[in-house]
Design a protein that fits this description.
alpha/beta, globular, Aspartate Aminotransferase, domain 1, 2 domains, 398 residues, 13 helices, single chain, 12 strands
Length: 398
Amino acid sequence: MSQPAAPANSLRLATQMVHGGTERSQWGETSEALILTSGFVYERAENAEARFKNEEPGFQYSRFGNPTVSMFEERMALLEGAEAARATATGMAAVFAALMCQLRAGDHVVAARAMFGSCRFIVEDLLPRYGIASTLVDGKDLAAWKAAVRPNTKILFFETPSNPTLELVDIAAVVKIAREAGARTVVDNVFATPFGHRPMELGVDVVVYSATKHIDGQGRCLGGVVLGSQKLIIDELLPFIRNTGPSISPFNAWVLLKGLETFPLRIERHAANAAKVADALAEMKGVKRVIYPGRADFAQAELARRQLANKGSLVAFDIDSDKAGAFRFMNAMRIVKISNNLGDAKSLMTHPATTTHQRLTPEARAELGIGAGTVRLSVGLEDADDLIEDLAAALKAI
Protein backbone atom coordinates (compact mmCIF):
# COMPACT_ATOMS: atom_id res chain seq x y z
CA MET A 1 0.00 0.00 0.00
CA SER A 2 1.41 3.40 -1.00
CA GLN A 3 1.89 6.21 1.48
CA PRO A 4 -0.82 8.87 1.44
CA ALA A 5 0.30 12.21 0.00
CA ALA A 6 0.01 15.39 2.06
CA PRO A 7 -2.53 17.88 0.63
CA ALA A 8 -0.56 20.21 -1.66
CA ASN A 9 -2.21 23.38 -0.36
CA SER A 10 -1.14 22.55 3.21
CA LEU A 11 2.56 22.59 2.32
CA ARG A 12 4.99 25.46 2.17
CA LEU A 13 6.37 26.52 -1.19
CA ALA A 14 9.81 24.88 -1.00
CA THR A 15 8.16 21.55 -0.14
CA GLN A 16 5.67 21.93 -3.01
CA MET A 17 8.57 22.45 -5.43
CA VAL A 18 9.97 19.04 -4.46
CA HIS A 19 6.74 17.05 -4.19
CA GLY A 20 3.91 18.99 -5.86
CA GLY A 21 2.01 17.27 -8.64
CA THR A 22 3.91 13.98 -8.39
CA GLU A 23 2.05 10.91 -9.63
CA ARG A 24 3.88 7.59 -9.32
CA SER A 25 3.46 4.61 -11.60
CA GLN A 26 2.95 1.06 -10.38
CA TRP A 27 6.74 0.82 -9.97
CA GLY A 28 6.84 3.39 -7.15
CA GLU A 29 9.77 5.39 -8.56
CA THR A 30 11.36 8.13 -6.42
CA SER A 31 12.01 10.54 -9.29
CA GLU A 32 9.06 11.61 -11.40
CA ALA A 33 8.48 9.17 -14.25
CA LEU A 34 9.47 10.25 -17.74
CA ILE A 35 6.61 9.08 -19.96
CA LEU A 36 8.31 9.47 -23.33
CA THR A 37 5.51 8.50 -25.67
CA SER A 38 3.61 10.09 -28.52
CA GLY A 39 0.36 8.18 -28.02
CA PHE A 40 -1.59 6.04 -25.57
CA VAL A 41 -3.33 2.67 -25.86
CA TYR A 42 -7.01 2.12 -25.07
CA GLU A 43 -8.36 -1.20 -23.81
CA ARG A 44 -11.39 -0.96 -26.09
CA ALA A 45 -12.64 1.24 -28.91
CA GLU A 46 -15.38 2.46 -26.57
CA ASN A 47 -12.70 3.85 -24.24
CA ALA A 48 -11.11 5.82 -27.06
CA GLU A 49 -14.48 7.32 -27.97
CA ALA A 50 -15.20 8.22 -24.36
CA ARG A 51 -11.85 9.95 -23.89
CA PHE A 52 -12.24 12.01 -27.05
CA LYS A 53 -15.67 13.07 -25.80
CA ASN A 54 -14.14 13.92 -22.39
CA GLU A 55 -16.47 11.42 -20.80
CA GLU A 56 -13.69 9.44 -19.11
CA PRO A 57 -10.33 10.56 -17.73
CA GLY A 58 -7.08 9.60 -19.39
CA PHE A 59 -4.59 10.63 -22.03
CA GLN A 60 -5.07 10.46 -25.79
CA TYR A 61 -2.00 11.93 -27.49
CA SER A 62 1.02 13.79 -26.11
CA ARG A 63 0.17 16.88 -28.16
CA PHE A 64 -2.98 17.12 -26.02
CA GLY A 65 -1.56 15.97 -22.68
CA ASN A 66 1.03 13.70 -21.11
CA PRO A 67 1.55 12.42 -17.53
CA THR A 68 5.02 13.97 -17.17
CA VAL A 69 3.86 17.25 -18.66
CA SER A 70 0.83 17.25 -16.36
CA MET A 71 3.07 16.91 -13.31
CA PHE A 72 5.06 19.95 -14.43
CA GLU A 73 1.88 21.94 -15.07
CA GLU A 74 0.43 21.11 -11.66
CA ARG A 75 3.65 22.05 -9.87
CA MET A 76 3.81 25.36 -11.75
CA ALA A 77 0.20 26.10 -10.78
CA LEU A 78 1.13 25.53 -7.14
CA LEU A 79 4.14 27.81 -7.49
CA GLU A 80 2.17 30.64 -9.06
CA GLY A 81 -0.99 30.19 -7.01
CA ALA A 82 -3.02 29.61 -10.18
CA GLU A 83 -6.03 27.37 -10.75
CA ALA A 84 -4.48 25.81 -13.85
CA ALA A 85 -1.43 25.83 -16.11
CA ARG A 86 -0.56 24.68 -19.60
CA ALA A 87 3.00 24.03 -20.76
CA THR A 88 4.33 24.98 -24.20
CA ALA A 89 7.43 24.22 -26.22
CA THR A 90 9.07 27.61 -25.58
CA GLY A 91 8.51 30.85 -23.73
CA MET A 92 7.59 32.66 -26.93
CA ALA A 93 5.05 29.94 -27.73
CA ALA A 94 3.54 30.66 -24.32
CA VAL A 95 3.33 34.40 -25.02
CA PHE A 96 1.80 33.93 -28.47
CA ALA A 97 -0.70 31.31 -27.30
CA ALA A 98 -1.72 33.36 -24.26
CA LEU A 99 -2.53 36.33 -26.48
CA MET A 100 -3.97 34.66 -29.57
CA CYS A 101 -6.31 32.31 -27.72
CA GLN A 102 -8.11 35.38 -26.36
CA LEU A 103 -8.08 37.69 -29.39
CA ARG A 104 -10.10 38.05 -32.58
CA ALA A 105 -9.91 40.33 -35.61
CA GLY A 106 -11.12 43.78 -34.60
CA ASP A 107 -9.72 43.56 -31.07
CA HIS A 108 -7.13 45.92 -29.61
CA VAL A 109 -4.14 45.33 -27.34
CA VAL A 110 -2.30 47.86 -25.18
CA ALA A 111 1.25 46.88 -24.26
CA ALA A 112 4.19 48.38 -22.44
CA ARG A 113 6.85 49.39 -24.97
CA ALA A 114 9.70 48.09 -22.77
CA MET A 115 9.69 44.38 -23.53
CA PHE A 116 11.72 41.57 -25.08
CA GLY A 117 12.27 42.05 -28.80
CA SER A 118 10.28 38.97 -29.86
CA CYS A 119 7.35 39.96 -27.64
CA ARG A 120 7.36 43.40 -29.20
CA PHE A 121 7.40 41.79 -32.66
CA ILE A 122 4.25 39.83 -31.81
CA VAL A 123 2.42 42.90 -30.52
CA GLU A 124 3.68 45.47 -33.00
CA ASP A 125 4.06 43.46 -36.21
CA LEU A 126 2.35 40.08 -36.00
CA LEU A 127 -1.01 40.81 -34.36
CA PRO A 128 -1.93 43.55 -36.89
CA ARG A 129 -1.59 40.95 -39.69
CA TYR A 130 -4.63 39.25 -38.13
CA GLY A 131 -6.61 42.47 -37.82
CA ILE A 132 -5.71 43.01 -34.16
CA ALA A 133 -4.62 46.59 -33.48
CA SER A 134 -1.99 47.44 -30.87
CA THR A 135 -0.79 50.48 -28.99
CA LEU A 136 2.55 50.73 -27.18
CA VAL A 137 2.78 52.91 -24.09
CA ASP A 138 5.31 53.91 -21.47
CA GLY A 139 4.58 51.18 -18.92
CA LYS A 140 5.58 53.45 -16.03
CA ASP A 141 2.92 56.05 -16.96
CA LEU A 142 -0.50 55.05 -15.62
CA ALA A 143 -2.14 57.95 -17.45
CA ALA A 144 -0.76 56.59 -20.73
CA TRP A 145 -2.28 53.18 -20.02
CA LYS A 146 -5.67 54.74 -19.32
CA ALA A 147 -5.52 57.01 -22.38
CA ALA A 148 -4.64 54.13 -24.72
CA VAL A 149 -7.64 51.98 -23.78
CA ARG A 150 -10.36 51.81 -26.44
CA PRO A 151 -13.84 50.28 -26.41
CA ASN A 152 -12.43 47.25 -28.27
CA THR A 153 -9.39 46.81 -26.00
CA LYS A 154 -9.29 43.19 -24.84
CA ILE A 155 -5.80 42.78 -23.30
CA LEU A 156 -3.25 44.88 -21.44
CA PHE A 157 0.11 43.14 -21.79
CA PHE A 158 3.43 43.85 -20.10
CA GLU A 159 6.57 42.35 -18.59
CA THR A 160 7.88 43.55 -15.25
CA PRO A 161 10.77 44.01 -14.70
CA SER A 162 11.36 44.64 -18.39
CA ASN A 163 14.07 43.28 -20.64
CA PRO A 164 16.76 44.62 -20.48
CA THR A 165 16.51 47.86 -18.48
CA LEU A 166 14.39 46.44 -15.63
CA GLU A 167 11.55 48.97 -15.81
CA LEU A 168 8.70 48.14 -13.45
CA VAL A 169 4.98 48.36 -14.08
CA ASP A 170 2.66 48.97 -11.15
CA ILE A 171 0.74 45.72 -11.50
CA ALA A 172 -2.21 46.48 -9.21
CA ALA A 173 -2.77 49.89 -10.80
CA VAL A 174 -2.79 48.53 -14.37
CA VAL A 175 -5.09 45.68 -13.32
CA LYS A 176 -7.51 48.32 -12.02
CA ILE A 177 -7.41 50.15 -15.37
CA ALA A 178 -8.04 46.90 -17.25
CA ARG A 179 -10.96 45.88 -15.07
CA GLU A 180 -12.62 49.28 -15.44
CA ALA A 181 -12.35 48.82 -19.22
CA GLY A 182 -13.59 45.22 -19.19
CA ALA A 183 -10.20 43.99 -20.43
CA ARG A 184 -7.84 41.30 -19.18
CA THR A 185 -4.22 41.54 -18.13
CA VAL A 186 -1.42 39.26 -19.35
CA VAL A 187 1.95 39.51 -17.58
CA ASP A 188 5.30 38.06 -18.61
CA ASN A 189 6.85 37.34 -15.20
CA VAL A 190 10.11 35.77 -16.35
CA PHE A 191 12.52 38.34 -14.87
CA ALA A 192 10.79 38.58 -11.48
CA THR A 193 9.99 34.86 -11.15
CA PRO A 194 7.23 33.83 -8.72
CA PHE A 195 9.64 34.61 -5.88
CA GLY A 196 9.74 38.27 -6.88
CA HIS A 197 5.99 38.61 -7.14
CA ARG A 198 2.99 36.48 -7.99
CA PRO A 199 0.92 38.71 -10.30
CA MET A 200 -2.30 36.76 -9.83
CA GLU A 201 -2.33 37.81 -6.19
CA LEU A 202 -2.56 41.38 -7.55
CA GLY A 203 -5.47 40.51 -9.85
CA VAL A 204 -3.69 39.58 -13.10
CA ASP A 205 -5.66 37.21 -15.34
CA VAL A 206 -2.86 35.39 -17.16
CA VAL A 207 0.82 34.89 -16.32
CA VAL A 208 3.38 33.55 -18.79
CA TYR A 209 6.91 32.23 -18.32
CA SER A 210 9.82 31.19 -20.41
CA ALA A 211 10.69 28.10 -18.38
CA THR A 212 13.94 28.03 -20.36
CA LYS A 213 15.25 30.68 -17.97
CA HIS A 214 15.25 30.39 -14.15
CA ILE A 215 12.83 27.46 -13.99
CA ASP A 216 15.29 25.16 -15.73
CA GLY A 217 18.15 27.28 -14.47
CA GLN A 218 20.94 25.31 -16.09
CA GLY A 219 20.65 26.04 -19.79
CA ARG A 220 19.49 22.54 -20.71
CA CYS A 221 16.19 22.83 -22.56
CA LEU A 222 13.41 25.05 -23.85
CA GLY A 223 9.95 25.38 -22.35
CA GLY A 224 7.14 27.77 -21.52
CA VAL A 225 4.02 27.87 -19.40
CA VAL A 226 0.75 29.82 -19.31
CA LEU A 227 -1.19 30.12 -16.04
CA GLY A 228 -4.70 31.35 -15.34
CA SER A 229 -8.15 30.38 -14.20
CA GLN A 230 -9.41 26.86 -14.84
CA LYS A 231 -12.06 28.22 -17.20
CA LEU A 232 -9.65 30.30 -19.27
CA ILE A 233 -7.06 27.54 -19.54
CA ILE A 234 -9.59 24.81 -20.44
CA ASP A 235 -12.05 26.78 -22.57
CA GLU A 236 -9.71 29.16 -24.42
CA LEU A 237 -6.07 28.12 -24.21
CA LEU A 238 -6.37 24.33 -24.44
CA PRO A 239 -8.22 24.30 -27.81
CA PHE A 240 -5.62 26.69 -29.23
CA ILE A 241 -2.68 24.54 -28.12
CA ARG A 242 -4.39 21.28 -29.03
CA ASN A 243 -5.08 22.39 -32.58
CA THR A 244 -1.96 24.44 -33.33
CA GLY A 245 0.58 22.18 -31.63
CA PRO A 246 3.10 24.28 -29.61
CA SER A 247 3.29 21.39 -27.14
CA ILE A 248 6.25 20.75 -24.87
CA SER A 249 8.30 17.57 -25.10
CA PRO A 250 7.75 15.21 -22.13
CA PHE A 251 11.53 15.03 -21.76
CA ASN A 252 11.79 18.81 -21.44
CA ALA A 253 8.93 18.84 -18.94
CA TRP A 254 10.82 16.24 -16.88
CA VAL A 255 13.98 18.37 -16.94
CA LEU A 256 11.95 21.38 -15.80
CA LEU A 257 10.46 19.35 -12.95
CA LYS A 258 14.00 18.67 -11.79
CA GLY A 259 14.75 22.39 -12.03
CA LEU A 260 11.78 23.27 -9.83
CA GLU A 261 13.18 21.16 -6.98
CA THR A 262 16.05 23.62 -6.47
CA PHE A 263 14.27 26.75 -7.70
CA PRO A 264 13.82 28.47 -4.28
CA LEU A 265 17.45 27.90 -3.30
CA ARG A 266 18.81 29.09 -6.61
CA ILE A 267 16.74 32.28 -6.74
CA GLU A 268 17.87 33.27 -3.26
CA ARG A 269 21.53 32.86 -4.25
CA HIS A 270 21.03 34.57 -7.62
CA ALA A 271 19.59 37.66 -5.95
CA ALA A 272 22.26 37.81 -3.25
CA ASN A 273 25.00 37.61 -5.88
CA ALA A 274 23.31 40.15 -8.15
CA ALA A 275 22.97 42.69 -5.33
CA LYS A 276 26.65 42.36 -4.44
CA VAL A 277 27.75 42.58 -8.09
CA ALA A 278 25.52 45.62 -8.76
CA ASP A 279 26.97 47.50 -5.79
CA ALA A 280 30.52 46.67 -6.90
CA LEU A 281 29.84 47.76 -10.50
CA ALA A 282 28.56 51.12 -9.27
CA GLU A 283 32.00 51.82 -7.80
CA MET A 284 34.04 50.75 -10.83
CA LYS A 285 35.72 53.21 -13.14
CA GLY A 286 34.31 53.01 -16.64
CA VAL A 287 30.73 52.25 -15.59
CA LYS A 288 28.30 55.16 -16.13
CA ARG A 289 25.08 53.69 -14.81
CA VAL A 290 23.96 50.59 -12.91
CA ILE A 291 20.34 49.42 -12.94
CA TYR A 292 19.25 46.97 -10.26
CA PRO A 293 15.88 47.02 -8.43
CA GLY A 294 17.52 46.38 -5.07
CA ARG A 295 19.62 49.55 -5.12
CA ALA A 296 18.56 52.82 -3.49
CA ASP A 297 19.37 54.73 -6.72
CA PHE A 298 17.02 52.55 -8.80
CA ALA A 299 14.63 54.92 -10.58
CA GLN A 300 11.54 53.11 -9.24
CA ALA A 301 12.97 52.15 -5.86
CA GLU A 302 9.70 52.74 -3.96
CA LEU A 303 7.72 50.50 -6.32
CA ALA A 304 10.48 47.88 -6.19
CA ARG A 305 10.30 47.82 -2.38
CA ARG A 306 6.53 47.52 -2.48
CA GLN A 307 6.15 45.03 -5.33
CA LEU A 308 9.30 42.89 -5.55
CA ALA A 309 10.02 40.53 -2.68
CA ASN A 310 13.11 39.18 -4.46
CA LYS A 311 15.03 41.68 -6.56
CA GLY A 312 16.22 39.11 -9.08
CA SER A 313 19.32 37.99 -10.93
CA LEU A 314 19.46 40.61 -13.71
CA VAL A 315 21.69 43.69 -13.64
CA ALA A 316 21.90 46.20 -16.49
CA PHE A 317 24.70 48.72 -16.75
CA ASP A 318 26.21 51.20 -19.19
CA ILE A 319 29.87 51.09 -20.13
CA ASP A 320 31.39 54.56 -20.59
CA SER A 321 32.28 53.76 -24.19
CA ASP A 322 30.88 52.99 -27.63
CA LYS A 323 29.92 49.61 -29.10
CA ALA A 324 33.55 48.74 -29.81
CA GLY A 325 34.45 49.43 -26.18
CA ALA A 326 31.53 47.37 -24.92
CA PHE A 327 32.64 44.49 -27.16
CA ARG A 328 36.23 44.72 -25.88
CA PHE A 329 34.89 44.58 -22.33
CA MET A 330 32.72 41.54 -23.03
CA ASN A 331 35.44 39.74 -24.95
CA ALA A 332 37.82 40.21 -22.01
CA MET A 333 35.57 38.36 -19.54
CA ARG A 334 36.96 35.03 -18.37
CA ILE A 335 34.19 33.68 -16.09
CA VAL A 336 31.10 35.46 -17.43
CA LYS A 337 30.08 34.02 -20.80
CA ILE A 338 28.58 35.86 -23.75
CA SER A 339 25.07 34.51 -24.30
CA ASN A 340 21.58 35.91 -24.85
CA ASN A 341 20.08 33.39 -22.42
CA LEU A 342 19.52 34.29 -18.76
CA GLY A 343 18.57 32.77 -15.41
CA ASP A 344 21.36 30.20 -15.72
CA ALA A 345 23.65 28.84 -13.01
CA LYS A 346 26.43 30.35 -15.12
CA SER A 347 26.72 34.14 -15.32
CA LEU A 348 25.80 35.30 -18.82
CA MET A 349 26.20 38.64 -20.55
CA THR A 350 24.72 40.11 -23.73
CA HIS A 351 24.76 43.38 -25.65
CA PRO A 352 21.04 44.15 -26.18
CA ALA A 353 21.52 46.73 -28.96
CA THR A 354 23.08 44.08 -31.22
CA THR A 355 21.24 40.97 -30.02
CA THR A 356 17.88 40.84 -28.23
CA HIS A 357 16.79 44.34 -29.34
CA GLN A 358 18.74 44.71 -32.58
CA ARG A 359 15.61 44.82 -34.76
CA LEU A 360 14.42 48.03 -33.09
CA THR A 361 15.32 51.37 -34.61
CA PRO A 362 18.04 53.41 -32.89
CA GLU A 363 15.31 55.83 -31.81
CA ALA A 364 13.23 53.04 -30.26
CA ARG A 365 16.26 51.70 -28.41
CA ALA A 366 17.11 55.16 -27.13
CA GLU A 367 13.51 55.54 -25.93
CA LEU A 368 14.00 52.36 -23.88
CA GLY A 369 17.35 53.47 -22.50
CA ILE A 370 19.35 50.94 -24.53
CA GLY A 371 22.58 52.52 -25.71
CA ALA A 372 25.71 51.35 -27.48
CA GLY A 373 27.34 50.76 -24.12
CA THR A 374 24.41 49.00 -22.43
CA VAL A 375 25.14 45.49 -21.16
CA ARG A 376 22.70 43.01 -19.60
CA LEU A 377 24.21 40.69 -17.01
CA SER A 378 22.44 37.59 -15.72
CA VAL A 379 24.24 36.87 -12.47
CA GLY A 380 24.75 33.18 -11.81
CA LEU A 381 25.63 30.98 -8.87
CA GLU A 382 29.41 31.43 -8.88
CA ASP A 383 31.21 33.13 -5.99
CA ALA A 384 30.24 36.80 -6.24
CA ASP A 385 33.79 37.95 -5.49
CA ASP A 386 35.12 36.01 -8.48
CA LEU A 387 32.52 37.70 -10.69
CA ILE A 388 33.43 41.14 -9.35
CA GLU A 389 37.13 40.55 -10.00
CA ASP A 390 36.32 39.32 -13.52
CA LEU A 391 34.26 42.44 -14.27
CA ALA A 392 36.91 44.78 -12.87
CA ALA A 393 39.66 43.16 -14.91
CA ALA A 394 37.62 43.27 -18.11
CA LEU A 395 36.86 46.97 -17.68
CA LYS A 396 40.57 47.64 -18.03
CA ALA A 397 40.35 46.32 -21.60
CA ILE A 398 38.38 49.41 -22.61
